[in-house]
Amino acid sequence: MKGTLTHPCRIAAVSILATILLAKAAPGQTAWTLPRMADGAPDLQGTWTNATITGLERPDGIDALVLTPEEARQIEGRTKDFFDAVDEVPEGDLPAGEDVGGYNTFWMDAGSRLAIVDGEIRSSLIVEPEDGKIPYSWRGMASLAKQYWRLRNADDPESRLLGERCLVGFGSTGGPPMLPVLYNNHYQIVQSPGFVMILVEMNHNVRMIRIGGSHLPANIRPWLGDSVGHWEGDTLVVETTNFHPGQGFRASLRHRLYMSEDAKVVERFTRVGEHEIQYEFEVDDPSVFKQAWNGEIPFLEADGQIYEYACHEGNYSLSNILAGARAED
Asked: Cα torsion at 77, 79, 84, 89 (round to 10°)?
């Protein structure tokens, strides 16, 4: 984790700071109180989004985790210019045989702001290692390269990415760790005694987190792994193991992540305000990474509700991918 304070100390520090700030609330303002369920557990329910233009890994040329407001303004400005240029399609027919591009920005939801955690503007979601990069070992890099090579295979539908097959969302949007992608970055959390449910917008994957108990037998491997949670004070701590071997490679336009089926991910959900959950994660997979690595993402309250993600309706991409490969053959 970032800094020298342990996680419980950091949470305690945030709680103390919040208490001081609330005590100094202006007259007439209502101090925020952590909402709780009937059993006393913190209420994390609602619809949240982790959309941000901060990437999982720190861009080359940026050394610090924390950006200045001026640096942030420049990065956000360049990002806006990039997305504005996406919609600049020339009039008339597109040239045959050339790249016709992809989505226009109407279909994108990547956010427009950098992530802010504990009041700091972040250059990467990864906070440990200090360089903000995924610490692949040589063996892990070889496994990642092998997955890239597999992407060249278009012999049958089963050889394609799970996102193309509409089984899970692209990248690691369903997690864990739950990472922002180009669009559909919403999550709905519902709590009931003994369970916390997280509905993932893309492909409507559902994470059912059992509170307490043990993990499933090793031969049972759900697409998003098996998650068991417990409460540490006001923080929901979730440990996930039993990852499905088909979910090892998680590719999107925003990140490329490879984890083995033996990985362990620990997530922490802490409601730090009326409109924000602080989401922290640690990924440990000695067969792929040189060390465990950590990240932090703000989950912000979203207006409205999650609508249907109709991946398969009118989706001709998969058949076209296979047909294009046969034409090249």
From this structure: 140
Q: In whole angstroms, give the CA distance from residue 115 to residue 52.
A: 6
308: which DSSP letter?
P
The residues near 123 (Cβ < 8 Å, ≥ 6 apart) are 54, 58, 59, 62, 64, 65, 66, 67, 114, 132
* Owner of token pair 């193309």: 164
For 212, left (φ over 0), alpha (ψ -120 to 50), or beta? left
Residue 202: φ, ψ to 5°: -75, 115
pTM of the full predicted structure?
0.86
Q: How many residues does the chain have?
A: 329
CB 167 within 8 A of CB 157: no
| Span between the terminal Cα atoms of the chain, in Å | 49
- Local confidence band at 77 (pLDDT 50, 70, 90 cut-offs): very high
pLDDT band at 28 (very low <50, low <70, confident <90, very high): low
